[in-house]
From TrEMBL, chain A:
Signal peptide: none annotated. It comes from Pararhodobacter marinus. This is Branched-chain amino acid ABC transporter permease. PANTHER family: ABC TRANSPORTER PERMEASE PROTEIN, HIGH-AFFINITY BRANCHED-CHAIN AMINO ACID TRANSPORT SYSTEM PERMEASE. Its main location: membrane. It is a multi-pass membrane protein. Keywords: Cell membrane, Membrane, Transmembrane, Transmembrane helix. One of its GO terms (molecular function) is branched-chain amino acid transmembrane transporter activity. The keyword Transmembrane applies. GO terms for cellular component: plasma membrane. Pfam families: BPD_transp_2. InterPro entries: ABC_transp_permease, LivM-like.
From TrEMBL, chain B:
It comes from the Bacteria. This is Branched-chain amino acid ABC transporter permease. The chain crosses the membrane at residues 12-33, 45-64, 84-104, 116-138, 174-193, 221-241, 261-282, 294-314. Keywords: Amino-acid transport, Cell membrane, Membrane, Transmembrane, Transmembrane helix, Transport. It comes from Pararhodobacter marinus. GO terms for biological process: amino acid transport.
């Protein structure tokens, strides 16, 4: 009785077109929002904020961005971390060059800068695809990181080669730098995550999203029915890079505070985000949330269990973690190639029929 | 000849030897790609794993000793004996064949007819799994690998080049060995695939899966076979790279370098893999040599990828690859 279209009458086009057509989904959505905005800030401690909640929110944005590219447009990218680095370094350059600029404008501008870089590296996608494109994005990964560590201009010639975030406020609350409270940081990330998820959801079910999916399903056929591949592919790169750039900006500005390009945005981070998208579910907004949650929580849980619980050396736990992640990727691909989001889809089908089996 | 030209030549010669390493890894890629259409990301980690296993056998390490010590509170490290290199290599080959069988049983069998991109991601998972497994089995510290290949400067090259140009090139003796071994390996592979029954079956599968199936070739056996051969090629690459700079994680990054090599050479061409590897190896050393004063060092990190990117725009199928034809 919980999960039914029946009895939920739509009386206007607006309500017919709403994001969650089923009442149960709407209720669940508002409940999650209430928990995120009201309950979590009350119980949030510094440890949980820094080890789980904030990385989770940031990775959701990055995973959403990558999902737009891989899951919705079918363009494989292995350069996510480099685009995050572009976001981080633009934030640093912008906020040190224009200290007066409101920080949320800085974040959005950083996203736009990343978009431009993304489109540039996305240009080869017009001609090539699949593994070939993966190599093109690898070029972005290694070239951009090299650029950021090589040229002093990017890190204002600091002697350590690191960039560190000065203190900035948003609406009178300190959100970056050492004196920012974890609640303020949490709210900053939460607002961005919710806004970006809303944007992603609505883009993917609109015209743009449909052209992306047409390209993904078969690009030649899409071209024949009148989808412009140039616009579809480059817009996908632009939007995806915007998301990833904002995620990188947040990683640097509010989460880590100081980063070094090669360390924080290496190729392993690209793979981590890729795994989130695969495990969560290609082409699913919910999947990005589930995948990010899973891969953020898993290492923390393993560490709690093995290192603190059983007293194993931490490097052993880390190797076991790599092994488990690798095995999970394979298992997910075999058992459910559409990821955790597909599991939820199955549950929904069952709920519709409940309490009857068929 | 001026000094600068000589230095450039020396850099190119050294690049050639790095290129052989790339070629060896790329060779493993091509073998698997031809036989099963799988883009095997795990090839580099396979080389790392093979090298780790070889060192483990040679020094008589107890597998999983760290894990056992952590669980049972014991303090064991090695069996207390060492193994001759030949025996250790044979045992490692057996382990690689075992891995090939397991990969076929546990992974590939279940992913038949999936899209190539799904298979590619599965091999990324495999790469992570093997990397973790290798570290847990044999420990993560950098290890010395010595199977008796001479190392250090090659006096012969030094002498010959000194007599020719009045300047002795510095070339690692190991590199010359690598060159020879790579040549032997490729010859053996070519003979195997041209003149043996299994080799013919292999080529048939590479040509057309379904047609091969219909004349009674077992696809599963062929997969195990190619993964075993790729494992052995990985072992050779692992031995070379390991004796040069120690067995360590950076070995698996070579796998990424093999991607541009493949793009240059073409995904389906064995000579392409060799030529591509050499081109990239020489190219990145020369680029670094000439551009260092202008844009700074460490360009090896990205040069190969950029070269591949430029190359892709003009000749997507690679130097020797088959022409890509797309149909709706």
């Amino acid at each position: 009785m919980l999960y039914r279209e029946a009895g939920d009458f739509k009386t206007s086009y607006a309500s017919d077109n709403q994001t969650f057509p089923i009442r149960f989904d709407r209720t669940a959505y508002w409940a999650v929002m209430a928990v995120a905005f009201l309950l979590v800030p009350m119980v949030l401690t510094d440890y949980w904020a820094n080890s789980i909640v904030i990385p989770f929110l940031i990775y959701v944005i990055a995973a959403l961005g990558l999902n737009i590219l891989i899951g919705y447009t079918g363009l494989l990218s292995l350069g996510t971390a480099a685009f995050m680095a572009v976001g981080a370094y633009s934030t640093f350059k912008l906020t040190t060059a224009f200290p007066e600029m409101p920080i949320y404008i800085v974040f959005i501008l950083s996203g736009l800068v990343t978009s431009a870089v993304g489109v540039l590296f996305g240009l080869p996608s017009l001609k090539i695809k699949g593994f070939y494109l993966a190599v093109a994005t690898l070029a972005a990964q290694f070239f951009l990181i090299w650029l950021f560590t090589r040229y002093g201009w990017f890190f204002n010639y600091s002697s350590t080669g690191q960039i560190s975030m000065p203190e900035r406020t948003m609406f009178g609350v300190v959100i970056t730098g050492a004196s920012a409270s974890s609640t303020a940081v949490y709210f900053t990330c939460l607002i961005f995550t919710v806004a970006m998820a809303w944007l992603a959801r609505n883009l993917t079910r609109g015209t743009l999203g449909r052209t992306w999916m047409a390209i993904r399903d078969m690009d030649i056929a899409a071209e024949i029915i009148g989808v412009n591949p140039l616009i579809a592919k480059l817009s996908s790169f632009a939007v995806s890079s915007f998301f990833v750039g904002v995620a990188g900006a947040l990683t640097f500005a509010v989460y880590l505070g100081a980063v070094e390009a090669g360390e924080a945005f290496g190729i392993n981070k690209s793979f981590l985000v890729l795994f989130m998208v695969i495990i969560g579910g290609l082409g699913s907004i919910l999947g990005s949330f589930l995948g990010a949650a899973f891969l953020v929580v898993l290492p923390v849980l393993l560490k709690l269990l093995l290192v603190d619980g059983l007293g194993w050396p931490s490097d052993l736990a880390r190797h076991l973690e790599i092994m488990i992640i690798g095995a999970l990727i394979i298992i997910v691909l075999i058992a459910e190639p559409h990821g955790m989001a597909a599991l939820w889809r199955t549950v929904k089908e069952k709920l519709r029929l409940w309490p009857f089996p068929h | 000849m001026s000094d600068n030209v000589l230095f450039a030549l020396e850099a190119a010669a050294n690049g050639l030897t790095v290129g052989i390493m790339y070629s060896l890894v790329a060779l493993g890629f091509v073998l698997i790609f031809k036989a099963s259409g799988i883009f095997n990301f795990a090839q580099g980690v396979l080389a790392l794993f093979a090298a780790l296993t070889l060192v483990g056998f040679q020094t008589g390490q107890v597998p999983f000793s760290h894990l056992i010590n952590a669980i049972f509170g014991t303090n064991i490290h090695d069996f207390g004996f060492t193994m001759p290199a030949v025996l250790a290599i044979i045992l490692t080959v057996l382990v690689m064949i075992l891995i090939a069988i397991l990969v076929e049983r546990l992974v590939l069998k279940h992913l038949v007819n999936q899209e190539p991109i799904i298979l590619f991601m599965a091999t990324i998972g495999l790469a992570y799994f093997l990397e973790g497994l290798g570290d847990i089995m044999w420990g993560a510290e950098v290890k010395r690998l010595d199977v008796g290949i001479p190392q250090g400067m090659s006096p012969w090259v030094d002498e010959v080049t000194y007599n020719l140009f009045g300047y002795g090139f510095y070339l690692d003796e190991l590199s010359l060995w690598a060159l020879g071994i790579a040549a032997v390996l490729v010859t053996a592979l070519v003979i195997f695939s041209q003149y043996t029954k299994q080799g013919r079956a292999l080529r048939a599968v590479a040509d057309d899966h379904q047609a091969a199936l219909s004349v009674g070739i077992s696809l599963r056996f062929i997969w195990v076979l190619t993964w075993s051969i790729a494992g052995i090629v990985a072992l050779v690459a692992g031995i070379m790279w390991g004796s040069k700079s120690g067995v360590q994680f950076s070995l698996s990054l070579i796998a990424l370098k093999a991607l541009p090599v493949l793009i240059l050479g073409g995904f389906t061409s064995i000579p392409g893999a060799i030529v591509g590897g050499l081109l990239i190896g020489v190219g990145e050393k020369l680029f670094d040599f000439f551009m260092q004063p202008i844009i700074g060092g460490a360009t090896e990190n990205w040069f190969a990828y950029m070269l591949a990117l430029v190359f892709l725009l003009f000749r997507p199928q690679g130097l020797f690859g088959e022409r890509i034809i797309e149909r709706v």
